[in-house]
Amino acid sequence: MAEDPITAFPPQLSLDVPELTAVLDGRHAEIRTAVRTLLPSYASLLDDAERMSRGEYRERVLEVVQEMAGSGATGMGFPPEHGGGGDIGASVAAFSTLAYGDLSVLVKTGVQFGLFGGAILQLGTERHHGAYLADIVSGRLLGCFAMTETGHGSNVQALGTRATYDAETREFVIDTPTVDAGKDYIGNAAAHGRVAVVFAQLEVAGEGHGVHAFVVPLRAEDGTVLPGVRIEDDGPKMGLNGVDNGRIWFDGVRVPREALLNRFADVTEDGTYVSEIESQGRRFFTMLGTLVQGRVSVASAGVSAAKVALTIAIHYALRRRQFETGNGEDGEEQLLLDYGLHQRRLFPRLARTYALHFASEVLTEDLHDVFSGIRTDEESRRLLESRAAGTKALATWLATDVIQECREACGGAGYLSANRFAALKADTDIFTTFEGDNHVLLQLVGKSLLTDYASEFSDLDQLGMVRFVAGLAVETVLERTSVHKLLEQIRDVLPGGGSDEWHTDSGLLDPDYHLAMYRFREEHLIGGAARRLKRGVDSGANAGEVFSEVQEHLIRAARAHVERIVLEAFVGVVEKLPDGDNKFALNLMCDLHALSGIEADAAWFMEHGRLTTQRSKAITKEIGELCRRVRPIAGDLVDAFAVPTEMLRASALLGERTA
Amino acid sequence: MAEDPITAFPPQLSLDVPELTAVLDGRHAEIRTAVRTLLPSYASLLDDAERMSRGEYRERVLEVVQEMAGSGATGMGFPPEHGGGGDIGASVAAFSTLAYGDLSVLVKTGVQFGLFGGAILQLGTERHHGAYLADIVSGRLLGCFAMTETGHGSNVQALGTRATYDAETREFVIDTPTVDAGKDYIGNAAAHGRVAVVFAQLEVAGEGHGVHAFVVPLRAEDGTVLPGVRIEDDGPKMGLNGVDNGRIWFDGVRVPREALLNRFADVTEDGTYVSEIESQGRRFFTMLGTLVQGRVSVASAGVSAAKVALTIAIHYALRRRQFETGNGEDGEEQLLLDYGLHQRRLFPRLARTYALHFASEVLTEDLHDVFSGIRTDEESRRLLESRAAGTKALATWLATDVIQECREACGGAGYLSANRFAALKADTDIFTTFEGDNHVLLQLVGKSLLTDYASEFSDLDQLGMVRFVAGLAVETVLERTSVHKLLEQIRDVLPGGGSDEWHTDSGLLDPDYHLAMYRFREEHLIGGAARRLKRGVDSGANAGEVFSEVQEHLIRAARAHVERIVLEAFVGVVEKLPDGDNKFALNLMCDLHALSGIEADAAWFMEHGRLTTQRSKAITKEIGELCRRVRPIAGDLVDAFAVPTEMLRASALLGERTA
């Protein structure tokens, strides 16, 4: 059992902020520092954005993106032979640090280097790499990632755009058959994209082979839209108005046979379709799987946005006074951060931001290992995909929630554009939707859990999954999950191990207790979802109805799974730290995060016999106590995020802290 | 006991939508219909807003506000002798219907007629009414309500602006002593306001008398800012950019003695301060109390904004299909609204919007009765103030929550400005802050609960309240609360009355069960807060610390109180309806709202022995079942809000529904 932190807790913590920043920055401190140094060079954009027209804003963002490209920060993930940095982990770290700055710059960077460049790199072969990558990395060739259509965003296997092979001319003919099959919300489409990676249903000699990706030119060098291509501006958006999103329709656009990004499938000159992956579904999901970096990047960006909001709100609360309480000098009003409620609003969110930071770091390392060939097994790849989907969902909801609470905690001043919340809120709002709708992503996670990441089931759709699970014994589903094995281990470790009372003896601040609770919840919810799916199918209902009824339960199981791996990531980091006040502080954050998570789901834990009403009340009390302990170090805890002062742009809120 | 709606529930409901609209519109159907007819005349503003410069937008909004004034819709609350409609309830109904349209128009309307006009009407006397009201009601004289300062938003008793009486010249001298004492976020200040009602610390012959209101000219007829007045534009805001918010500083601005709005206090020519209300605090809160209509109006506007979002999201989900599930025809994808999770996301929010609609209606009637002299007792006035504060908090948080969920439920399309979420989200964001920060408002409610609305304690600040409560026996606090008496009654009504088991026998859909649960929670939380305050003071801690520690508990008690009165309002309406499908539908909404509220706080109910784990699970299951019952009537339920089609502005989302 871990040492009881209560008794060991020093009365007054003295944090080493640069050292804490180093812990947060981890392996990629160097690139993070480099990007932090670059950010102030376009800090004025944060002000200018609200004065400029949409057109001007877009041009200015393009300039900045191209400058960033020149610095090398945006090309870290590409092979050195094409001008890249050859370090995938560093590329995510750079992206996440860029997220402290203007978010249109961030998203245009993501579109250009992550989505467009990433698709060429991952789905293409040497002929495409040689032809495009150097120009993409340098920012000379702007491009689009044209997957989403007006009619299909989540169910991209059902895209409407068609690519028909014409064996005679050895060309693909790209067509948009209906208005709803038009590509939509495509970044770089409305103004700057010269080519697009277009996802379309491939048809060869009358036979359909599912969705494949093609390089399709959109504009001539002078910017003129090419014949057969029709582009429409998506118009003003809630945020991210520095990114030129648009719609694209194709009318018989011909591209050479070589335009097919042919890493996973090809069409021979004479019109024979060849692929090493037989199943259409699995082939498509294999392609999608190579694009997982986008989700990893958005997750990390969501965490960064939350950090900016917390930095502003906590420093504001350390400056702003309201109402006399008799605590201070006579007639002096009390600091907002000294109010219990204010602490309750901000500190658990701060703790959760720390948790998702470290979870996002683990995810980034997984990505790095899988895509740098350090881990080559199929299971690592599947785990990565599931982890990326789940972390992206939780991190982007975190951003929405934290930014909103921080804005409210800054009152009317938080509403002025001169402070950063307006842009932060508007720009990040779409994070919960792009790179996969969060609920759909958690559904994917749930499916992976129930099918144990087995690659042979990766091409199952919802209905296939329902039928597959219904065909297994629930015990089989459960025994195959990794959490089941973990839970077995923890049962032995905890006092009262094996009995149903394993939770009652352990200390509230014992990480083993937290983990046991999170793991129990996960296993129980997965088992329950499997049981309900099975029962539904057995009772003769159709798979669609069964899925609709169990969907919420399945997503809850998925969420519990992701919460568990997030907590494990945080606990793992804290354990490894050398003793000292920084470790105490992170331990405090970790406890606060873990207990807040149990408190938020206390009803479920009680319903399932894992929490007594007394203990539930004790947890709520303990959270209040932890908040009071965080109070003196709250400023240091946000300063450790090291958001450059120029990026806070909150002069009215923070006074002398900003330039 | 009420009839069990399960057995009585008809298999297929057929709603009479116009009749349901009539139920929602209530007594003020006429003015609501009139405003609904006016709204489309400026529907183009919704489109134009994102194309226009901030300056153009402001001018266009001014035009519309003046047109609305011409129609009589905005002056409903003023006395007929000054060009008003003489119907306070109708004025709130008109305002809430205006909230279906552009929200800059709404807020400028609120500033001009509610805040500025309201202050002249409520705080002034005949000399002010005669001089200003007709021009205010007609929209000829634009003005400001200059209360909030950069340094003080919530604690307005501590405002810094000074008004010193100069007996020699019989003038008040208005001064801003520090930068932070500048008036801030003041609507109509940056461009259109010619005069302002300025709240300032009155000093007469060296003696301070607390905050009073003065009519102070800001601009000459040609718009030139007058000498001694300095005005700064607040600049771009997250939303509401059609309203010209600004900052105002005064440097020795002289106004005649008659500029004091002297309903509650006056200064005689020779410089004697006179007031019928002795206590400075109570005098100030009496003044503030007359301005309660602003909170009532914002509450109703928040509900309206939620209705617009739900109308769009539910109709989108009735059109949008994604993923094949095998439920429909072969190859057909499933409607979003047929997914269990989608129902779970939208329907409890729809039910809560209904609940807050009716709660806001009851509040409006209370306002009408108190301000039309129908109820003249002091207690009615205190109850109104508390109800207004609490309903405003819940209704505006509802708006933030509902709009966010609806945006996410509409995916990427919800992010385009061409649909309404961008403006809805940005414009309503400040609703949780203006007219009182929601947490501070709930604190006021909590204070009222603990002091039983007793007028003799209305001038207590936080510390005074802590000391007052600490001086009472907890039983005394409890017995004085209205919920205590209610709970006594309900105990007798319910099966097992009097025992601790009163809740286990009753049906899940019995409104008496719901009400008993809500009342129990309220009483228990109030008692707990009182006990903790008492214990803290008894233990020797200073009142400020005690308050900080109990603050969250107190706010929770306040919230429970407001939740109870919201539910009572809803149950009250449903009970009175004639039998029929509409009644069934509203009953369904009411049950869904009540049970969702219990589910959201299930941990608390279990902790306090009022919910068994079995019953808690049963409630969750029942909510799923209710959602499935709502599914076929969901479209009708939002159509009953009768948001004019032109206001939905969601052509991309709703297709043929919009023009």
From TrEMBL, chains A, B:
One of its GO terms (biological process) is lipid homeostasis. The keyword Zinc does not apply. Keywords: FAD, Fatty acid metabolism, Flavoprotein, Lipid metabolism, Oxidoreductase, Peroxisome. Residues 289-450 form the Acyl-CoA oxidase C-alpha1 domain. One of its GO terms (molecular function) is fatty acid binding. Its EC number is 1.3.3.6. Residues 28-139 form the Acyl-CoA dehydrogenase/oxidase N-terminal domain. Residues 511-650 form the Acyl-CoA oxidase C-terminal domain. Its main location: other. It is found in: Peroxisome. Its cofactor is FAD. Residues 144-253 form the Acyl-CoA oxidase/dehydrogenase middle domain. Signal peptide: none annotated. It comes from the Bacteria. Coiled coil: none annotated. Belongs to the acyl-CoA oxidase family. PANTHER family: ACYL-COENZYME A OXIDASE-LIKE PROTEIN, ELECTRON TRANSPORT OXIDOREDUCTASE. This is acyl-CoA oxidase. It comes from Nocardioides faecalis.
